[in-house]
Amino acid sequence: QTVPEELQNGGGFGYVVAFRPFGTSSWMQTVVASPDAARYVFRNESLPPFSPYEVKVGVYNNKGEGSFSPVTVVYSAEEEPTKAPTTVLARSLSASDVEVSWAPPWESQHKGRIQGYEVRCWRHDEKEENAKRIRTVGNQTSTRVSNLRGNALYHLAVRAYNTAGTGPSSAAVNVTTRKPRETSWAISTFSSLSLCLQVLYRWNKQSSTSVIETNRTWVELSLPFNEDYIIEIKPFSDGGDGSSSEQIRIPKISNAYARGSGSSTSSACTLSAISTIMLSLTARSSL
User: Considering the domain boundaries, does residue 142 fall inside one?
Assistant: First the structure.
């Protein structure tokens, strides 16, 4: 940072930049005569990439030299990584998500720091140059790739990057996302219920939602007759959560009819009456 004019204490103000390779004893010095200068570039074509140097900056004016700043360590420009990550693995988490992991590349020479990794993911019927790109930061060696198409073959590759650029790519690995399932719904609403899959319900005047999940083909839910309720049905499986049905309003002791659509892994199921008022559900699985 430059020294303010009120602290320069005389004319002919400038800077003395002293530097030396880290671990050596002899300082090299250069003078920067402008009081507004805030940088100095040392050029040396034989300088190895990412070489550490000790640097300190002093001041002077027509009356003489002032003190130096504390010594700090700076590095010459780094080169992009020269090796690719290794041991790249990918596994499907759901119909839309996969996880990819890798091991850091082995560098024969220390020419720079790895600041993170770039994961590229492209579908088998797409061009690699149009791949989805996700960048991690730091030492993270795994990440999740989301919003993929279900039951589709994807290729994934990983490369390291730093301030100089991106290194070579690993060999691509393949993974197939899990297969989603489609379901159509037909729901008739009355009061005491037996429901398939996952049920979300709340009193119409409340914002909090209650959830019931079961691996059985039904779950029983009893509602009071004197309140309005909002119900949604959402299927779920190893392939991930499906879409919720449309909201179904159950009014006070009255009949209603609602239809929705979503995704499910369940077989067809029908809700039967528990009381004189009943909600029935038919789910038809189509793959």
Answer: yes
